[in-house]
Structure formats: C-alpha cells, structure tokens
Amino acid sequence: MVNDELSSKQNDDAAATERKPQSSFTRRMQQMNILDGSIRRQARMMAGTGVVNMTTWLATLNKLFDERQYSPSERINFTLPMLNKEQTTWYEENQDEIKDDWKFFCDHLEQTALKQQTTWSNTSLHETPPLNNNTMNTLEEVIDMHFNKYSGEGDAKEWLLQTMNKFKTHGLRREDQFEAIPLLLEGDAYVWYAENSETIFNFEAFSKLFLRRFKLTPPSPTGTADTLTQFFLGEINTEYLTHRLESEEKRANDQLWLYQHSTQCSAALEIFLEENPSYWCFVPTKVAAPTLNRRFLLRNIPKPPSGFVFSAQQRQQQAQFFQSARDRIVPRDLPDLYN
C-alpha cells in the first residue's frame, strides 16, 4: 500500500515537471497575442519613407519585449516575419553565428539600414516607396502623405478606386485598410462614418455602404473608369454600381434577400449575385425561411465548368439548404446536382 502511494506521488511529481515547460510556453503565446496593436501595425509598415528609422523601430520593439520579459530567441523569432527579403536571407545564411544573440542581430539591421539610407534619401514623399525599405511610418503618416481624403463632395467611386489602388501600392493589409477608414474621411463623409461605424466591420462593408450613401458619378465616355469589381472579382461587369441611386429606400431586414445582408455575404459576392441572377436559386430567399421549391432549384442550377466536382463541405451545405426548404423532400444520398 505504501509503495503504491509512493509510486503515485512520484508519477504526479513527474507529470507536474513535464507540464512546466508547456505552461511556460502557453503563457508566452498568450503574451504574444496581447501585443500592442499599434506597435504591431507600425512594425509591419516598413515600406514608407524615413520618418522613423530602423534604430527607433528596434528600440520600440525592444522596450515592448522588456515589458513582457521576452528571451533573446523570442525577440528574434517575433521580429523575423517583419524583415524584408534581403534581411531574411542574411539571417538564414548566418543563423548558426547569430544563435540567440539579440544584440548582434539588431546591430546588423542598423548597419544595413545606415548603408542604404543614402540611396533612399532622394526619394520624393509623393513617389511610390521602395518595396524593401528599412524604415517605416505609422498608419496615420502614410495616409497623410500618400492618400487623398474624401469630404463628401466629388466622384465617390473614383476616389474609392484610387484609394484601393494605393492600398495595393503601399502594401496595406486588410486590417490596416479597415483601420484607415476614419483617417481617409473628413467633413460630411466623416460625420456619416461616425454615425454608421457600428454597422461597418470591414472595408468591403464600408465600400458598399459608402457608395449607397454618396451619389455615384457615371463613367466618362472615354471608358477609363474601372468598376469596383476589378478590385474584388476581376473582369466581371457590374453596371448597377453606376446606376444605383442615393435615394434608394432602405428595406427592413426581413424583406432583404439573404445575400443582401452584409453579415451573411461579402460585397464582392453581392455584386456577383446582382449581375448573375441565375445563381440566386442556390441562395435562400429570406432570412426568416427559405420558400423555393426543390425541383425549381434543380432545374435552374447553372452549369459549372467542365470537370467541376463538389467538395464535401459544399454537399453538406446543399443538404442543409434543401432540408430547410418548404417541401423538405431530400434524398438520403444527395446526388450530384450537376450530373
């Protein structure tokens, strides 16, 4: 009996010892997840002109790491994804020499930035920034230097297209684009955004509501104006964007088609469905309860490209859709609806 208790205690102690490293790692990962959002954003934006240099950037990161008591190896691992291609190549080639030497790692980055500073010093603030620059700006500084703000007057669609193109040029990620919205607006446009910000959860939703609110100017005869879907969907033509009136009445939620709810459908998919009504047959009609007849759906499903095969998830979603239809006639083994 005593031996059993002793053995059990030893096993518990061994298990506790094995759990300690995992617990420490978990704490580190939790700390990683609560990093200051503004610091993370600034760290990514190393493609701007030299308002904040490499030394300042590393000092900011170092202070953050000190507060969270990161080890040298954790500091290096956190910083690596933010480096450009040249810096990453240097690290990979000298990894054995660097090991966990955070100071050596920072010294090299600073020296490289100083050597290249002369090359970039002549770059105009209004020109496209170098893709692999070693300096960075805050989001607000990038918007102020390179973007035009919209006040509610002028061609809203043209401004939006220019803004999205600049997002690509300056490498702003989707989360940065969303955070940039209030920085891009002023005057009446900013007031409108402030009143509707609770319903805007990404840049696509903003684009859709923005174009509904501000009257669209028809494209010029020269045909130089692009459509929004060249940003979202490529070459799909969506003339409705240029003809939708600002005075369009807002319908109650229960009167909207399901795909017209921004929480259920992205702006890109809504554009596609507006221009391709033959695909509506595969979208529930209302939020409350789908009422389309299953046989109607089967007859009107558009033909797919040659060689198309449903994924398992698609087949499951189709089954769920038909099960919610009024007639509730669903075969036990859902057939391939295209064959």
From TrEMBL:
Region listing for Disordered, in residue ranges: 1-28
Domain of life: Eukaryota
Basic and acidic residues composition bias: residue spans: 1-21
The name this protein goes by in its record: Retrotransposon gag domain-containing protein
